[in-house]
Amino acid sequence: MCLGDRACDGEAEPAALTTYRIALREPLEEVRAQAGGDSGALVGHHESHAGDGVVECAPSVIDCRRATVVPIVPPAAGDPNVEQDQREFRLAPDGRHVALSQVRRTASGRPTGVGIVGRLARHGDAYHVEDARVVATDGELKGFTPDGQAVTFARFLNAFEAGNPDVVEVDLRSGRESRLTSALDWDEDVDFSPTPHKGRRWMVVGSARTTGLLETFSQIRRPPFIEEGVPALPFAAFTARNPEIAEPWLVDEHDTRGSYTGQPLAPGAIAAGWDAKPNFRWKPDGTAVLFWQQQVRGTRTRVVVAHLPERTPAQRGPARPAPTPSWAPPVAGHVPPDPRPVAHHAGKISGSIDITRRSSPLPPFESLLEVTYTNYSDEPGFVLNGVERSHHGKPGLYGAPSRYSADLAVSGRHSGHLTANNVLIQPNAIAGTIESELDGRHLSLGPLP
Q: Residue 382's closest CA among 422, 409, 418?
C-alpha cells in the first residue's frame, strides 16, 4: 500500500492499524485519496520510469485481480533548466487531470519549485501529461480541492510574513490566489473536507503550529524581505525538528485567529514516539481522516484512522471536470521569474522599510542584506523599529548558509523584541540562538539540532 509520495520514496510502508476516536472541539471534514474509485486506475509512486506511474487494475480498482504499472512521462523534462522533473504527483477528482511540481532554474540560476496542471493521456506504453501549464511558482503543489476547480500550493519562502511558510489556493479558471493558512509556523499539506459543515469549509493541515519553532522568527510580524538573506531558515527547522513539522490539525477555512489554532488529530503522538506523515486523506463521507505515522526513533510504521464522531456522513455529487488554466504559461520552455528586488517599502499605517544589498566583507559569504525598520506599521498598535542583517551565499533549493543578526523592537499597544547575534543558519542546522518576545510570550530557536 502507498499513502502518498512520502510514504513510498524508499521508506517502509505502513504495516499496522491504529484507530483514534476523538471527541473534537471542532467538527471535521474529508479529503479524497488519489484513486479513481471504480475507474480501473490510480496514480502512485513506483520505482520505474520517472518514479511515478498509473496502476491499471482489472476488472476495477476495488477488485484489482490483475495490476499493471504504466509509467508517467513528466512534461518538458528535457528542458535545460530542469533540475528535478517531477515530485508530488496528484490526481484530480475527475480522474483525468493531474498536478505535479518540478524544480526549474530561474534566469539567474536559482532553483525553485513550480506547480503544474495538465491532462493525463495514455500513448503507447506510457502516460503523458498533455497541455501542461505552470499555475504557481516558488513552492510545491500539494493537491486539488475536492471540487477539482482549484489547487493548493505551499510556499516555504516569500509567502506572507517573514519566517512563515504558508499555503495558498489557486483558482484554475482565473489564476487568483487566496491565502489558506495563517499560523505563525510551518504549514504545508492541506486537504479539504468533501462537503461544508455548519456552513464552512474545513481542512486538515500538516503544521508545526504551537511548537514555537519558526514562530520565534515570525511572531514579530513583518514582510518577508529578510528571507532573501536567510533562505535556509525554514529548512533548518524542517530537518532538525522534523517530527514536529507536519502534525495533522483540523481547522475551518479561516484558519487561526485570536487564540484559535484548530484541533490536533494525533494528540500526544510525538510524546508517545510516533511522528505523523502527510498526505492526509478524508473518508469520502467526511467522518474520518486517514494518515500514517513512523516511529520517531525507529523504523516501524502504522496507519492511523482519526474518527470524527460529531460528523454526519455526507454524500458528494459526481466530480466536475477540472478547468484548463488557459491563463497559465505552458511548462515547455518555462523559466521561472526571479524576485524583483525592493529597496523601499511603505507601511500601511506609518513608517517604512529600507532594504540595502551589497557585497559581503565576511568570507565565504557573497552578499550582505540589511533591512531597516523606521516606525514601520501595517496594523494598529504594532510599530517596528530596528535593523536585521544577514551575510549569505547564493541559495540552492534548500537555501544557503548565512550569518544573521537582529535587533528589532515592537512598540504601541503591543511590546516585544527580536534579537540575534551572528547566528549561523544552514539548511540542516542553526549555530547560535534567535530570541523573540511579544506581549510576554518568549520564544527561542537554536541551536539546532
A: 409
Question: Taking the model in full, what pTM does it have?
Answer: 0.88
In the beta sheet, which residues pair with residue 187?
207
- The secondary structure of 393-443 as a DSSP string is ---BTTB--EEEEEEEEEESSS-EEEEEEEEEEETTEEES-EEEEETTEEE
293 vs 11: CA distance, rounded Å: 12
DSSP 197: B
Distance set, CA 50 to CA 190, 230, 300 (Å): 25, 32, 28
Backbone angles phi, psi at 8, to 5 degrees: -115, -10
Give the position of cell 503543489.
141
- Amino acid of residue 446: G
* Distance, CA of 260 to CA of 174 (rounded, Å): 31
Q: List residues bridging with 150 in a β-sheet.
A: 171
* Alpha-carbon distance values, 309 to 31, 299, 306, 315 (Å): 16, 31, 9, 16
As a whole number, mean pLDDT of residues 59-87 equals: 94
Residue 19 is predicted with a pLDDT of 54
Query: How many CB atoms sit inside 10 A of residue 388's CB?
Result: 25
Alpha carbon distance 18, 367 (integer Å) = 50
In whole angstroms, what is the distance from residue 119 CA to residue 380 CA?
47
Question: Cβ of 66: how many Cβ atoms within 10 Å?
Answer: 8
324-367 residue pLDDT tens = 999 999 999 999 999 999 999 999 999 999 999 999 999 999 99
Instruction: Give φ, ψ of 233 to 5 degrees.
Output: -55, -55
Assess contact for 312 and 330: CB atoms under 8 A. Answer: no
87 vs 43: CA distance, rounded Å = 13
Q: What residue has cell string 529597496?
A: 343
pLDDT by residue (tens digit) across 381-403?
A: 999 999 999 999 999 999 999 99
How far apart are the C-alpha atoms of 322 and 394, rounded to whole Å? 38
* CA–CA distances in Å: residue 347 to residues 160, 181, 184, 226, 437: 15, 23, 20, 16, 22
- Per DSSP, helices labelled H in 50-120 are none
Run of H or E residues at 119 = strand 111-123
pLDDT-derived band at 197, boundaries 50, 70, 90: confident
Look at residues 238, 243, 229 and name the one whose alpha carbon lies nearest to residue 428: 238
pLDDT-based confidence at residue 47 (cuts at 50, 70, 90): very low
- Give the DSSP H or E segment for 218: helix 215-218
